Amino acid sequence: MSGAARADRAVVHAGADEREWIAAAAASIARALGEALAAPGEVRLLLSGGTTPAPVYRALAAQSLDWSRVIVGLVDERDVEPEADGSNARLVRESLLRGQAADARFEPLRAAGQPLEQAVAKANARWPLAPVAVCVLGMGEDGHTASLFPGAANLAAVLASDEPYASIDARGCAVAGAFAHRISLTPAGMAQSAHRLLLIRGADKRAVFERALKEGEAGELPVRVALDLPGEPLHVYWCP
Ligand SMILES: O=C1O[C@H](COP(=O)(O)O)[C@@H](O)[C@H](O)[C@H]1O
């Protein structure tokens, strides 16, 4: 995609500070869920992990919605036990599944003791249980989103996959750190979400995102996959 076309695929909501960022992002997710819940049946919310989104999830947990019809799933997970440090499931349990949102049904990606490939097969077999109303993405300073790391051994195959989830071999990718083996939503999975949000903070990530808006391969800065998908543009919530 050309740089000009890609720039049209993002709507950036810049908050003056953390407080504004949290309020705007949580309200946007709640609004999209509320719209989806106007139809009968269950809706799905897909959440990222990492160090950024917990304050937004805590604010979202206070929103009054029919949470009993919300299935919360994950965008990606590291190959760790559900209660381990670094587990995205643990982050979501501790930050979102409280207060009003305690009524939501949580479907983590990896069960205790489960081999990663089995977790991927199970996630793909049960997809999609309900329409995906919102997918909340993050981004690392290397331009990865979900667990789509630039330089991952199987990245090209995962970007081309038509399954919603895939395993990622991110050995050698510095930002993946100790968590080299992961399960990630693929572009095909992201494409099925009605709304996609990106939560980022700080000048460094803003600069990476501005680079991603320019012409270039998705494999270099995988966050580009979220810009290149058809449908609603990517809504980016940023603060310094
Ligand atoms: O490893 C991950 O990284 C991204 C970005 O995380 P952050 O710590 O830089 O905010 C995150 O979106 C993803 O869910 C996570 O597994």
TrEMBL record:
Belongs to the glucosamine/galactosamine-6-phosphate isomerase family. 6-phosphogluconolactonase subfamily. Residues 17-226 form the Glucosamine/galactosamine-6-phosphate isomerase domain. Hydrolysis of 6-phosphogluconolactone to 6-phosphogluconate. This is 6-phosphogluconolactonase. GO terms for molecular function: 6-phosphogluconolactonase activity. Keywords: Hydrolase. Gene3D superfamilies: 3.40.50.1360. InterPro entries: 6-phosphogluconolactonase_DevB (IPR005900), 6PGL (IPR039104), Glc/Gal-6P_isomerase (IPR006148), NagB/RpiA_transferase-like (IPR037171). The lineage of its organism: Bacteria, Pseudomonadati, Pseudomonadota, Gammaproteobacteria, Lysobacterales. Its EC number is 3.1.1.31. Pathway: Carbohydrate degradation; pentose phosphate pathway; D-ribulose 5-phosphate from D-glucose 6-phosphate (oxidative stage): step 2/3. It catalyses: 6-phospho-D-glucono-1,5-lactone + H2O = 6-phospho-D-gluconate + H(+).
